Amino acid sequence: MSLVFYHNPRCSKSRQALQLLEEKGIQPEIRKYLEAPLSTEELTSLLTQLGKKPAELIRKDEDLYKELNLGAVEVTEAQLIQAMVDHPKLIERPILSNGQQARIGRPPEQVLELI
Known about the structure:
The chain is of the alpha+beta class. The chain has one domain: Glutaredoxin (3-Layer(aba) Sandwich). Helix content is 37%, strand content 10%. The chain contains 5 helices and 4 strands; from the N terminus they run E-H-E-H-H-H-H-E-E. It has a 4-stranded mixed beta sheet, covered by helices on one side. A hairpin with a 4-residue loop joins strand 3 and strand 4. It starts with a strand and ends in an 11-residue tail after the last strand.
């Protein structure tokens, strides 16, 4: 099984989730999505794997979320996806994907559901 771990090394939850995987002997492909941003297609695929809408994946506590007024009623799902593509720090993290399903590691133990 091929696993991709969308990782932000500066995030404690991301580091914890990766450590849990490594303790289980799992070495996923690590994608540092802040350095290698996701395309619209990749993000849309992840949303499908997660079974979530864009509003459920975006980090609402980020200052940028407020600055861009992404919580406004008139903001569309496509605009939220584009905002996350343009500003990857808005994406909730970490995420583990097996290509068919994905889990957000909040709490970090949730990534273990895929193994």
